[in-house]
Every structure is written in structure tokens, then in C-alpha cells.
Amino acid sequence: MAQSAALLTRLLAYSVTAAKRAGKIIRDIMSQGDLNIVDKGKNDLQTEADRSAQRCIVTSLTKQFSDVTIIGEEESSSCEVPTDWVVTEMDQEVLSINLPTNLENVNASDLCVWVDPLDGTSEYTQGLVEHVTVLIGVAFKDRAIAGVIHQPYFRNSESNSWGRTIWGIDGVGVKGFQPISPIDGERIITTTRSHWDSTVQGALDALEPTNILRVGGAGYKVVLLLEGKAHAYVFASKGCRRWDTCAPEAVLHAVGGTLTDIHGERYSYNSKTSYPNKGGVLATAPGQIHQWYLARIPSEIKQRLI
Ligand code: AMP
Ligand code: MG
Ligand code: MG
């Protein structure tokens, strides 16, 4: 059954187990206490956990899907990967789903996997570990169509264990969590904690939020939308890149939410596309009128994000 499953099903089934394994690596490195932090640019940190989690995910997926393009945030490394970092099992729940007919027989050459092995690195280094997610997004041609958002530090009180994995496929829906609608009568907006500037502020001011939730990571902000804790995620900045938004966009779309740039255009995620999300990020929870948010962002701000 498992080997005969469709390519996209198998790819997502391995992505779920790889994201969970990467989450364990992230927890282990934090508890060992040596993050070995490097600044890749201005306010763009990388730790041992980012590097190791990427090696786990990319090696695991490349081993199974050598003909699928996999693009990870971190530079690849020629170091040997410990064998217990390479996953060989597929997630059984993913294997049990039925794909929509348009995704049943896709070619490997039309798929591209975008990996953010640790989203929310600044917050991770500051001990705000609940903001951290592992993101694996799958694009078919231009579109983000499937994604995994794993939260390594989500506490499961019933089973007394760590980690929650939310995954979704366009036309199938989302598993691992039952989305909740945000309450009416408020406009709670989530945005960056660590990449703030006057343009980010200008867009928020124009939307007149009733509350602002400044948290780390694109993955965690989309989780807040799924949990009904925020109505929109607004980031009028060129700072995010495709690996930040591919999985969150796919998961959000699978439940009827929307993620675009601040001009209302969806990003392209094919393997040849450029990485920066130059038009910023506007994501809205299911039931929100995306167009309303787009129309409220001043054109003067939009002009800065072309
Ligand atoms: P934030 O909302 O600031 O946590 O950003 C979401 C994701 O985009 C994180 O992975 C950040 O590292 C990345 N990001 C956002 N802005 C920047 C920036 N100016 N430079 C580097 N990475 C950024
Ligand atoms: Mg990121
Ligand atoms: Mg990252």
C-alpha cells in the first residue's frame, strides 16, 4: 500500500516524519546548551539547530525523492549525517488520505519542496521556544499545495509529550488540529517581533487593529490564524523568503484562508523562482475579507514593496 501511494502522498508522509525528527533535534540542541550562533546577514541568525534540522530533512527527503527539487534555507553541508537523523518511515495518517484527482499523478519535475528547518530563529535564541516551527512546503508548478507546520515545543498535556504537527493539502483540508474561527467584532493582527521598521508600522496603523500580537516566525503567525487568536498576519517588508511562506500558505489555503503579498498576488513557488518575498505578506484567517485588508493598506506603502 505505502509504496503504491501517489508521489505527493508519499512526499508529504515522509515530510511529516522528517519534520518531527527535526523538531527533536531542535529540542536536543537547546537542552545541550551550545547553539553556536552565526549571523548570516543583518539580524538573520543561524544556529546549530537550524543547520542540523536542515541536514535531517533534506537528507531524508533526497534519499527517497532524488528527482524532486528541494530548496532549504541553510547552505548545504558535505558533513556526514548521523544515521538516526535520516527518517525511513512514512506518516500513516497521511498515507490514508485520498488526493483530489488533479494531484493524483503529478510528475516529480513539477514539484518543489521548500524547507525552513527552523522558523523563528531569533526567538529560539532568546528562549521564546513556543514561536519556533519546522516548515516543509510542497509546490506543484507555481502553487503551494501541501505543507507541514511542526511545533517542536507544543506541550501535549494528555500524553505528557512535546510536539504538534499540522499538515494540509489543497482540496483535502488540514489534519493535526481543528481550526477555530477568530471572534467577530475585533481585528487582531499578528506581525513580526524582531524585524520591525516604519513601513511595517505604517501598514499596521492603516488597519486600525484592536490588538497586535508581535511574535516570531511566519509559521507561528499562521498557527495563530488557525487557532482563531488573530484575524490577519501583516508584514509590509521584503524580509521573508519562499521557505517561510510555502508551507504556511498551503496549510492556510487548505482551510479556506488566504496568503498573498500586500498587492494581493499569490507567490510563485516553482523551483526556478527567486527567493525573496519582495511584496511582503498579508495572510487572513478563514472567513476574513482579504480584499478589505488589501484596500486599507496605503498605496504609498505598497509602492515601497515592488
Ligand atoms: P519574523 O516575523 O520577523 O519572525 O519573520 C518571519 C521569517 O522571515 C523569519 O524566518 C525571519 O527570519 C524572516 N525574516 C523576516 N524579515 C527578515 C529580515 N529583514 N532579514 C532576514 N530574515 C527575515
Ligand atoms: Mg523562517
Ligand atoms: Mg529558518
Automatic annotation (TrEMBL):
Name the catalysed reactions: 3'-phosphoadenylyl sulfate + H2O = adenosine 5'-phosphosulfate + phosphate; 1D-myo-inositol 1,4-bisphosphate + H2O = 1D-myo-inositol 4-phosphate + phosphate; adenosine 2',5'-bisphosphate + H2O = AMP + phosphate; adenosine 3',5'-bisphosphate + H2O = AMP + phosphate
Q: Which GO terms describe its molecular function?
A: 3'(2'),5'-bisphosphate nucleotidase activity; inositol-1,4-bisphosphate 1-phosphatase activity; metal ion binding
Task: State its cofactor.
Answer: Mg(2+)
Q: Which GO terms describe its biological process?
A: phosphatidylinositol phosphate biosynthetic process
Q: PROSITE patterns attached here?
A: IMP_1 (PS00629), IMP_2 (PS00630)
Q: Would the keyword Transcription be found if you checked this record's keyword annotation? A: no
Task: One Pfam family, please name it.
Answer: Inositol_P
Q: For binding Mg(2+), which residues are annotated in this chain's numbering? A: 73, 116, 118-119, 244
Record SUPFAM superfamilies: Carbohydrate phosphatase
Annotated signal peptide:
1-18
> Known PANTHER family for this protein?
3'(2'),5'-BISPHOSPHATE NUCLEOTIDASE 1
Similarity remark = Belongs to the inositol monophosphatase superfamily.
Protein name in UniProt: 3'(2'),5'-bisphosphate nucleotidase 1
Biological classification of the source: Eukaryota, Metazoa, Ecdysozoa, Arthropoda, Hexapoda
